[in-house]
Amino acid sequence: MDPLPDPAPLASKLRNTLVRYHSIGDGEWRVAKKTKDATVWRKPSEEFSGYLYKAQGVVEDVTNRIVDHIRPGPYRLDWDSLMTSMDIMETFEENCCVMRYTTAGQLWNIIAPREFVDFSYTTSYEDGLLTCGISLDYAEVRPNFVRGFNHPCGWFCVPLKDSPGHSLLTGYIQTELRGMLPQSAVDTAMSSTLANFYSDLKKALKT
């Protein structure tokens, strides 16, 4: 188990990594799933043997409120059906923390419940916000959970120029679920989970 890292250089490196993902050309992505709420693409990850996923969709709300529903805080547990618990373990400053959260089993429990410990950072990006995270090897793994690992992940949320009450939400996710899992099951689950994330978020913002 590692000690907690110095938050400032980690936050800076994480932001730079996400901005680099955000500049990857369209030709490198392959469509994995398309719904009325979002499109999900994927490409091989540079971090591990799985995929880096990109999800994008327009969400009807202002940037700050959308990001408040995504980043660590009281809203996320209310609407994200995959997340079953969340504890903020350390707070460095208002926009920077370490959280532990658990996820429900998926695909008829082929994918058992997972636990993650993530460093989370929210910062400004262009006219909007970026909230991003990366897993840490920190704290004991609780019984009955497999410890998963999020390689650099994040959500860019920027207001639409011609429609300020709407925002373009773009996510980059690369999760190593670990444990004995067929990769095809993981890939199916990831695409569906990301598409559902948008429909669930939209419902939550309307309430």
UniProtKB/TrEMBL annotation:
Tell me what organism the protein belongs to: Grantiella picta
**Record domain START: where:** 10-207
What highest taxon heads this organism's lineage? Eukaryota
PROSITE patterns in the record: START
| Pfam families on file | START
Q: Quote the gene name from the UniProt entry.
A: Stard4
InterPro entries, A to Z? StarD4 (IPR042555), START-like_dom_sf (IPR023393), START_lipid-bd_dom (IPR002913)
Q: Name one GO molecular function term.
A: cholesterol binding
What's this protein's name? Answer: STAR4 protein
Q: Which PANTHER family match?
A: STAR-RELATED LIPID TRANSFER PROTEIN 4 (PTHR47006)
> Which example biological process does GO assign this protein?
intracellular cholesterol transport
What is one term from the GO cellular component aspect held by the record? cytosol
